[in-house]
Amino acid sequence: MSSSSSFPEMANVTFKQFKVAYQKLLEFIVFLNVLALSGVVIVGFMSRLVGSPFSWYDEVASVGLAWLTYYGAALAAAKGAHITCPSIINMAPPSIRLPVALLAEAITIAFFVLLGYTGYQVVMILEGSTLVSLTSISLQLTQSVIPIGSALFIIAQLLRLPEVIESARGAGFIDHELEEAGINPDEARSNEGDSSFGQADSQAPHRA
Q1: What is the recorded membrane topology of this protein (predicted)?
Q2: What was the pLDDT predicted at 17?
């Protein structure tokens, strides 16, 4: 009995460890992207400042920005930090909240499956093509971020699925903007309720 009951606990711990490690990996990738893009921008600025700009600056910077967008989106998905409206969906009871949340997750994953497949086709079509300013860099490398970023996004969504289900069945979803700011969402909701009640009370006519 003890061994059978400990297996789900071990699996849960392993899952959480993998989720944390995956998020750390995405953070490292995004950090490298930011570092590289910052370096390119600084070098490009300095070259323009001295009057001899590099021909590859604009093209490489645009590729770096695209990479940062895709990998950053995957990191945001892993943290559940994409723009949402938790206060609206939290108004619904769990019986409605859960299917709506699962439908939203399914639509998101389906979109990135389509994007990843299309991106893979684009990469195959670009075989033999290179950057205009740097012919040593293949376009297959620069555009590989589309299928890779899509796959990373899908994995991030799947890893968050148990958390989404738990939130939908429980007290509701948390506003991650408040969480990042160090504000307790429950306290914020109660303060909003108190302030609105106070305003309504102050606007009510006073009787002598």
Answers
A1: Multi-pass membrane protein
A2: 93
- Name the burial class of residue 49, with classes exposed (0-12), middle (13-18) and buried (19+) by CB atoms within 10 angstroms of its CB: exposed
DSSP character at residue 171 = T
CA 78 to chain centre: 6
The half-sphere exposure of 202 on its side-chain side, counting CA atoms within 13 A, is: 6
Residue 45 to residue 143: CA distance in whole angstroms: 25
Q: Which two tokens stand for residue 98?
A: 């859960």
- Give the Cα separation of 76 and 108 in Å (integer): 14
Ranges of the chain with pLDDT below 50: 1, 192-193, 195-200, 202-203, 206-208
- Name the token pair of 74: 């995957």
- Hey, CA dihedral for 90, 94, 95, 100, is it positive or negative? positive
Give, to the nearest 10 degrees, the angle between helix 57-79 and helix 2-49. Answer: 160
Residue 178, CA atoms < 13 Å, CB-side half-sphere: 14
For residue 72, which amino acid is it?
G
User: How many CA atoms lie less than 13 Å away from 94 in the CB half-sphere?
Assistant: 9
The torsion angles phi and psi of 138, rounded to 5 degrees, stand at -75, 145
Q: At 203, list the tokens.
A: 């606007």
Residue 91, pLDDT score: 85
How long, in residues, is the chain? 208
